[in-house]
Amino acid sequence: DVISWNAIIAAYAQNGRGKEAFNFFRQMQLEGTKPDKVTFVSILSGCSHVGLPEDGWRIFISMNSVHGIMPTLEHYWCMIDLLGRAGQLNEAEHLVNNMPFVPHTAAWMSLLGAC
């Protein structure tokens, strides 16, 4: 079920093994389990820790367009962190300024932490 997959994906992502987390994310979907909001936080975090900004963007966009899940503030924080770590500071700032939420201190801290 999705909870078991989330645990596996999160464990790999949190231990700097984002590529493996990404592989489990794909495998989960191939086996017919639909990702949820927690899945996306874990996989975006994994992309951030191993420097996969293109994959992160693709996953972030697919949340709504493919899976029908609206990104939450936490998903935006993951993307800001991902872009900042990848040196894409202009894109990260653009995301902070254009997200559908009032920019929270944590969003700015993520961006400043990348400088």
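the 2nd protein, sequnce then structure:
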Amino acid sequence: EVLRACVCNIFENKISEAKKTFPAVIRALKSKDSRLAMCEELGSHVKKNQVMLEHQQFDLIVRLLNAALQDDSDIDMYGVAAAILPLAEAFGRKLSRGVTQFAYTQIQDH
């Protein structure tokens, strides 16, 4: 429930509210069930193929994706990396006119 509330706050651009629960969400992502639930919750906010976010929203989403990948095993037996890939392609932010940065550019180390 904390995860869902945090993600909703991010998408409603209530960044200060999201930041209050963010550390608890990051800790919760150590569990495979939480990582998969996060993927489902983020996926529910993808209406079309792309979601353009404000800079702070984008940064928090990327931190969630990185935390979920960080705690996944080398063998992606739970499908977390596979679930994150379409999300990383969907979430982006405008850097300047005509230039969009997508989340996958921030999670390439995994």
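The beta strands are 51-53, 91-96, 99-102. The mean pLDDT is 89.
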